[in-house]
Records
---
Amino acid sequence: MTLGEAVFLGILQALGEFLPISSSAHLALFPFFSGGVYQGLTYDVALHLATLIAVCAYFWKDLLKLVLNGLSKPKSEEGRQFWFIGLATIPAALAGYFLQDAAENVFRSPLMIAVMLMLFALFLFLADRYNSKLKSYKTYFPLAALMLIGCAQALAIMPGVSRSGATITAALLLGFSRAAGARISFLLSIPIIAGAAVLKLKDISLSEIDAPFMAGFFAAMICGWLVIKFLMKYIQSHSFDIFVYYRWVLGIVIIALYFLR
């Protein structure tokens, strides 16, 4: 992997992780479009670790408040949110544990990725339309709502679903605003990305940590922070339509190339 490819993949990871377009789909599709060799899940996890740092840096005040209240005042609103987020991570953790082999092989078919991109884009489109008609929004995430959003997060084991897309879709359907849905989506990503990274770190050898590896890592981290900042501001006055249309177009292109080849 060249330095340019590494940086490109790092930026691609940051865009796909936080925008509802599926980072795992784009990383898996890179060799399909470029004709190169898949960079491997180890490098994918390293890029996820970089974006984990980005989301922690952006929401550090929220995280600090959640952790402190969760440990010292577990019955307070923010204290309960801390433990609820932990519980809501369980579905995705179980999906990752039991479906890891399928995630590395079966789910990475370009045709399946195209279908997931288009199908879950439709769900996001419909959820956004439903949400825009609501006259008021919920302000507190109870355990039941977070568990449902956590189940949606588990679907992201399939490339093309999009972890952020699935969780935001669920939040919109449950009556939360776009901003609230995006915020809880990012907070829910922290424990699941951290867990996946810790499990895979043992597979990374020092020989793999070269200049391209580090360049991709820092590109993902810096770009990730910028993407979060952009999205949180963008959705204040815009719908998710642009991401829906992008997913539909990408899905059509993948299917066309798949059968032409």
---
Amino acid sequence: MMLTRWPMRSVLELQNAGILLVADGNHGEYRPRSDEFGQGEYAFIRAADMDDGRVLFDSAQRINDQALARIRKGVGHGGDVLFSHKGTVGKLALVPLDAPPFVCSPQTTFWRTLDEGRLDRRYLYYFMRSRAFKDQWMARSNETDMAAYVSLTAQRQLNVALPEIDEQLAIAGVLGALDDKIAQNRRTARALERLARAIFRAWFVDFEPVKAKVAGADSFPSMPQDVFDALPTQFVGSEIGPVPKGWEVKTISESIHLTMGQSPPSEFYNEIGEGLPFHQGVTHYGFRFPTHRVYCTTEGRIAEPDDVLLSVRAPVGRINVADRRLILGRGLAGLRHRSDCQSFLRQQISHIFAEEDAIGDGTIYKAVAKRFLEQMPLLSPPRQAREEFENLTRPLDNLIAVCEVESRKLAETRDLLLPQLLTGQSRVEVGNG
């Protein structure tokens, strides 16, 4: 176990002193019923709704007022630290202070600082990310018949290192500044992505420039004039619906180089960086690029840098982009546009698979075969329109890549500093503002 230089206090002791509250989510008669989920106001947070220290409120299930009225416990609020303790054990998230009330699932515990003057919430979150904390809950995870479970009773027997509040704030300040920059980069990347997506939808989904020209307009915002001048003023029917006259619909095999993954034997896998990165599926997907954890020393099906990585097994349709040469496992396919318009391709594939696991007529697929993908129809705009879109959005994608690379380096720095700060190997000046 990682040793800290400060005294360890048990959670139960901290609770009895009014410093900390640890409570789990709803279960039994108070758990929301299936008919209480829907378009309600309150998020129902599961382990799946926690990612890299964040709570994914936007994608979480919602419950209605009727469910909330029955709930007696497990209501979280801003500032809580969430800990997944059942099934997927060990995921953590720090809830923003301005977050609305939400409900914890039975697999989730909230840790709530009751006295910020003695226990800083951000310090608590970073301590819970430490090896000292992980070693404790891992030792408790096999105390019941369930292999992946850390009971509420076991959690209350865990210990928290408790330095003076000034030192807590200093540690949290250093680590928090890195996470704040990562969050800022994430917001910037998402804003840039929304802009690129909006342009794609306007040009190639809603056909707004063509409709504007039909209505008598002589230009369209964001579209170069020569591209606008070349637009038709009519629509024709196609197998994907009405499209501008002269624009083609082609199959994926006609428009895209498709490489279906195939997993090499497991004896060639390693986690020490030998060979090329290997990805079986979406486990290590990020916002734009995957994180490389597993490597393979024998080459198989290869994705080249900038290839779109499409998951072809559940969840079908999730995408990332290869940031370097890597090996594709059987759960992924690599896609490259035949005209090398990768920004256009990524937006097009994102649009087609906007709803994961549902494609075409809405049929749910657990996996899709190469032949099925090859025959899928795609809009194929004229080269001029496609390349001008690429010219507009490629710089946005390059900026997103810069944000992602910087965030990865910041996260590495944070993860390096965290154990050093919590053990006292590195010290932070305190008391000087």
